[in-house]
Amino acid sequence: MIANERLVNYIRSLEPDRSALLDKVRKEALAAEVPIIRDETAALLKCFVTMLRPKRILEIGTAVGYSALTMASVMDEDSEIITIENYEPRVTEATKNISGSIYRDRIHLINDDAGKVIKSFAESGRQFDFIFMDAAKGQYINWLPDILSMMPRGAVLFSDNILQEGSIINSRYQVERRDRTIHTRMREYLFELKHNECLETAILTDGDGISVSVKR
Ligand code: SAH
Ligand code: MG
Fold first, then answer.
1. Domain extents for the chain?
2. Fold of 5-215
3. Which residues does a 6 A CB cutoff place in the pocket of ligand 1?
4. Which of 89, 120, 125, 175 is the most exposed place for a label (fewest CB within 10 A)?
């Protein structure tokens, strides 16, 4: 993570060229300060999708579609991604980016509040074999019960931004009230991921902090 910037830059310099589309979406997102996954997170995400070959992927937090397109670039042709975003300008941008790609039939964007969608999915018994959690950081803990109910044995929950630039371990007096709430909830989330008997979890400091949990 933040530990050694030179090392991170070196690793990034090894990254092969992206496809023209991914390159364009990434550059536009960075220019507009859209918080897309970091390069090392993208690399790990692609390894997981390649390794697990999930048929049904759920992404919570589409932004402009960069991570969905990244996963789609390595997934099987008969796999699909359902991705959720509720911020109108980003939905518009994501729709444009996805429909302009060769993966348009395999990525389904839902324009709604993720909490609501997850609840209705859980109630109707939907199952996903890979879930990428990357939306409102303070909500992860609240969404977890529904998320777990959608994961069969062996399913993987991959969560981004769990260390909040490292600030998650700062004293509460060093952080603003809003962030304090997010930090408290994120710590509860990480504790739950580590102590829930249904899960095996690894916490990584790469990117902005990543957790990988497998359902027993
Ligand atoms: N996964 C994307 C980045 C997502 S950024 C990528 O790496 O390319 C997080 C996104 O989650 C933001 O666009 C934000 O609008 C969205 N979000 C936050 N809370 C949400 C909610 N309750 N429902 C749906 N989307 C939400
Ligand atoms: Mg993220």
1. 5-215
2. Rossmann fold (3.40.50)
3. 35-37, 61, 63, 66-67, 84-87, 90, 113-115, 134-136
4. 125
